[in-house]
Write a structure and sequence with these properties.
This protein is α/β, with parallel strands linked by helices and about 170 residues long. It is built from 5 helices and 7 strands. The protein has a 5-stranded mixed beta sheet. A two-stranded antiparallel ribbon has the order 1-2.
C-alpha cells in the first residue's frame, strides 16, 4: 500500500492557517476584561434585576451576542441549555429596542429572564468586548477564569463552567 504523504507546501499552508487563527483570536481578545469580573447591575427583558456577582457554589457565564450575528444564532441552543443549570447573563449588543429584542427572543425560544439589552454598548465597553459571541466564565470567587470569542459547543461551555466551579 502506497500512502501519499502531504507535501511540504501543504504542511506550510496548514501551519499558516493555524497561525492566522491564533493571531485573529489574540487580536479579538486583547482588550477583554481579566481578573475580577466587572461589577454591574441591570434589568432583564422580563424586568428581573440581576447582577454580575457569582453564586457562592457555582460558576456563571456572561455571554455577549447580537441578533445580527450568525454565529450567535448557531450558538443560541447551547446558551439556552446552559441557562437551565447555571447562572447565565445573556447580554445582547446593539440589537435594537427591548420590544424588538423580545420579539427576536420569542421567535428563537430564548428565556427573557436572563437577557440584558445592551443597546448602548456600555456593558460591552465595560468588558472590552469588540466581537460576538464573547463568553466570560466566572468562578465562584468572582474571577474571570476563561474567556472565549467565537463559537463554543455545549460541552465546551459545560467543561469550562465545571472547571471554573472547582
Amino acid at each position: 500500500m502506497n500512502i501519499k504523504r502531504p507535501s511540504r507546501k501543504t504542511i506550510m499552508q496548514f501551519m499558516m492557517v493555524i497561525l492566522a487563527i491564533f493571531v485573529i483570536r489574540a487580536w479579538q481578545q486583547q482588550d477583554l476584561s481579566v481578573g475580577m469580573v466587572p461589577s454591574f447591575t441591570s434589568q432583564t427583558l422580563s424586568g428581573q434585576v440581576v447582577n454580575s456577582n457569582p453564586l457562592p457554589d457555582q460558576a456563571m457565564l456572561i455571554h455577549f451576542w447580537a441578533t445580527w450575528c450568525s454565529i450567535c444564532r448557531l450558538e443560541n441552543d447551547n446558551i439556552q441549555a446552559l441557562s437551565k443549570d447555571y447562572k447565565v447573563l445573556n447580554i445582547a449588543m446593539q440589537s435594537g429596542t427591548n420590544t424588538e429584542l423580545k420579539k427576536y427572543a420569542n421567535k428563537h425560544n430564548m428565556r427573557l429572564d436572563n437577557i440584558i439589552n445592551d443597546n448602548s454598548g456600555s456593558l460591552a465597553k465595560l468588558f472590552g468586548v469588540r466581537a460576538t459571541p464573547s463568553s466570560f466564565f466566572i468562578n465562584t470567587k468572582g474571577k474571570i477564569q476563561f474567556v472565549e470569542v467565537g463559537y463554543v459547543t455545549t460541552w465546551g461551555y459545560k467543561l469550562r463552567l465545571w472547571w471554573a466551579g472547582l
